[in-house]
Amino acid sequence: MGELTRAYDWSQTPVRDPKYWPQSLRTTVSNLLNSKFPMFLWWGEDMIQFYNDAYRPSLGNEGKHPKALGQRGIECWPEIWSIIFPLIEQVKSTGQPTWNENLLVPIFRNGKIEDVYWTFSYSQVLNDDGDPAGVLVTCMETTEAVLSRKQLEESEKRFQDLVMQAPVAIAVFRGENFVAEIVNDYYLKLVDKRRSEFLNTPLFESLPLVQSSTEPLAKEVVKTGQPYYGREFEVPMNRNGKIESAYFNFIYSPLTESDGTRNGFIVVATEVTEQVESRKKLEEVQSGLEEQVKFRTEELQLSNVELATTNEELQKSTHQLARSNEELSQFAYAASHDLQEPLRKIQIFSDRILHLKTLPREADEWAAKINQAAARMTMLIKSLLEFSRLVTPEETFAKVDLAGVIKDILKDFELELNERRSQVEVHNLPVVTASELQMQQLFYNLLSNALKFVPGEVIPRIEVNCQTVSFNELRKYLHKPPLNKEYHDITISDNGIGFDKQYSEHIFEIFKRLHAGAQFKGSGIGLALCKRIVTNHGGYIRADSTVGKGSTFHVFLPKDS
């Protein structure tokens, strides 16, 4: 800027040729040009402008430079003159300098009006006679710092909003005493506390009963930086004036500051007390039934010796009791198995939220997925509790939309389907009279198999379809005649490894597996459970398959009259 200033034709401006400049102007311009700090000078009544190299970048690449040099202030800054001129006049008239920090002053540069933030000072410059002659500006552009701070504030607000709207209990504890810094309504409901008595209070002052069991875990998480996952963790809780045991699934995740230090933790929790107690009750029922089966079997065997004439009835009773025990075992497995997928999705998406330093747009989508998975788990639990009260398959049936059932199941498999770029087509599914829970179990198992038995290097292709079959069409491949004139033939086809047709009947036997556990995971009861469910609904199930060419499962369900 020194070279440009010296080469400039000042004789064409009100300040005239430099040889006529007053010494005060010469001195001020010399100091300005030799300073490494951004400086700008307005001189004279026309506010003729001078600036140095340090100030030059603030004018932009396609802005006011070099035209601003020697230009009148009002001509250079028409977009902000109404803002800065009163400040200039105030400084010139009073001699009192001004100071503004991070002030928004939009300017034209880089071919457009930009919002620019400045920290600057205006100070009076006197001429050789001691009269006000100009205003010197020392300034620094702080746009980047201001915008960064605003982005951080917005990011923190988005995080807090996400926490407050999350469908699970979330809280943030910071400092040596784990003071509650952020807590959502779900967490407050979970610990039975009001926000005013919990927020900004040390955790174990609010919840002294959990200190002995959870404080060591929290300190270890902060110390090591490794998260802790609690599963069905039992803690005493004071609720409604009564101390009772409660069970929780939770994650303690370390809270890392910008300097890398750890100063607290984030907790994401869901209460599973009802599920745990229900499972324990089921286990007690199963144990009791097993004892009853054992006792009745011994009793029947003794009666068989003493009363040979009643042998046939005793054998029948023994068979019925054994089958009841077997069905209870199948139900206990199904309860454990089917609840895993929704819970896994909650944990995966919660983990992602907890480990993000900033929250992208995808956070809204993940939160929605957590909400959907949690809702599905709630529905499954309630349905299973009702199912557990039944001692026979004579359940009250209702209208069930199979298209909706399949849609919900595919949501559970969404992650795996996307990862494997799976192709799934669903067509023409009917509404049937059935148990919705049993339909969910039936098609969950069939779709799970269709996906599981496709080799990892192959893109899975699954098709679900339905057509109506008549009595004659159904009779040709079933061992006993149908009960209805027409049936729904619902097919689930895949491009998996298939199996030899000689096993088409055996695959529906309990614990019957055609492949080693190390190759394809499974318990061996899924298809047996499918067969039982279809039988409960007066229907039939069969499978067609060729080794290496996939499989097609046919589910025949009675069509409503």
Largest sheet report: 5 strands, antiparallel
Strand count: 19
Proportion in β-strands? 15-25%
Global shape = elongated
CATH superfamily of the largest domain: Histidine kinase-like ATPase, C-terminal domain
What is the helix content?
40-55%
Number of helices: 18
Order of strands across the biggest sheet? 2-1-7-6-3
- The first-to-last residue Cα distance is 94 Å
Mean pLDDT: 80
Radius of gyration: 39 Å
CATH architectural grouping of the largest domain: 2-Layer Sandwich
Structural class: alpha+beta
Low-confidence stretches: 382-392, 515-520
CATH topology (fold) name of the largest domain: Heat Shock Protein 90
What is the CATH domain class of the largest domain?
Answer: Alpha Beta
How many domains make up the coordinates? 3
Could you explain how this protein is built, in words?
- 43% of the residues lie in helices and 24% in strands.
- The chain has helices spanning 2-7, 23-33, 73-76, 81-94, 143-165, 185-191, 195-198, 203-206, 211-224, 273-306, 311-338, 340-355, 362-388, 402-412, 414-419, 436-452, 471-475, 526-536, and strands at residues 39-43, 48-51, 98-104, 107-109, 112-114, 117-126, 132-141, 169-174, 179-183, 228-239, 242-256, 262-271, 398-401, 423-426, 431-434, 461-470, 486-493, 540-545, 551-558.
- The strands form 5 sheets. A 5-stranded antiparallel sheet has the order 2-1-7-6-3, sandwiched between helices. Strands 9-8-12-11-10 form a 5-stranded antiparallel sheet, with helices on both faces. A 5-stranded mixed sheet has the order 14-16-17-19-18.
- Strand 10 (228-239) and strand 11 (242-256) form a beta hairpin.
- The longest helix has 34 residues, at 273-306.
- It is elongated.
